[in-house]
Amino acid sequence: MSAGADVYPGGVAGGGLARGGGYAAALTEEPEHGPSKRIVVAYGFWIFLISDIILFSALFATYAVLTDATAGGPSGRDLFELPTVAVETACLLLSTVFCGLAGIGAQVRRNGMYYGSMAATFVLGATFVAIELHEFATMIAAGAGPDRSAFLSAFFALIGCHGLHVSAGLLWLLTMMAQVYAKGYRADIRRRLLCFALFWHTLDIIWVALFSLVYLVGVAPR
Could you list the residue range(s) of the whole structural domain that residue 15 is in? Predict the structure, then answer.
């Protein structure tokens, strides 16, 4: 054994630590070149979030251009119900709080805090999606579907795209709960939880913009 790789008794598997980087290897539980892989994954995830923001920016711009293109049909002032949307918004904002608590629970390895907060996040997110689907169904039943006008096409595309992202986030949430149950609070699992939290918070920020620019501006008198 080389002089630069002194080992405490027991080795990593037996509770000992290698002086030449063994502690880092045991902590991350990753093979060689793990840090390089983490950097690539981190960059890839940020690129994904930025591409999502660009997507929503394009949908925002399309909606803004087509706001008045109602083709003689209903406008936002005729369709939007702010009390319902306010409840929907409160559910998503509160889910973000619980998502943050779940991250804290994972860091301190408290199962009750982690699983309880993740469950609350799921319930609130699912409630958000259910309210949104009810809104869509009500509008379509009233003859204000996406094929009624360019305005409604842009509205359904923008709000529906966000709803699909939230639905995908709920599936991701369940996956993370299963991974923690199966593998524990390993370093790589906590990094995945951080990615999920960033994704969820991004959806929250986007919804605040949607609520402000679509619903509040949509019902404002002109």
Answer: 1-30
Contact yes or no for 57/49 (Cβ under 8 A)? no
| DSSP characters over 85-131 | HHHHHHHHHHHHHHHHHHHHHHHHT-HHHHHHHHHHHHHHHHHHHHH
Question: SS3 of 20, please?
Answer: coil
CA 98 to each of CA 115, 125, 160, 187: distance values in angstroms, whole numbers, following the listed order: 10, 11, 24, 21
Residues 181 and 205 in one domain: yes
CB-based contacts of 147, cutoff 8 Å, min separation 6: 153
- Residue 10 Rama label (left phi>0; alpha psi -120 to 50; beta): left
pTM across the whole model? 0.80
What is the amino acid identity at position 30? E
Tell me, what's the pLDDT at 44?
Answer: 81
Does 7 score more than 90 pLDDT? Answer: no
Same domain, 8 and 77: no
Same domain, 73 and 24: no
pLDDT at 2 over 90: no
Q: Which residue bears the tokens 């960033």?
A: 198
What pLDDT score was predicted for residue 34?
A: 57
Considering the domain architecture, whether residues 70 and 122 belong to the same structural domain is answered as yes
Q: Total domain count for the chain?
A: 2
